Amino acid sequence: MSDVINRQRGFISDSQYIWNITKMTIMWTVASFLYYMLNFMMKYFEGSMYANLYLDACAGIVGNTLGLIIYKWIRMKWAFIIALVLTFIGGLFLIFF
Question: Got the DSSP string for 78-90?
Answer without folding.
Answer: HHHHHHHHHHHHH
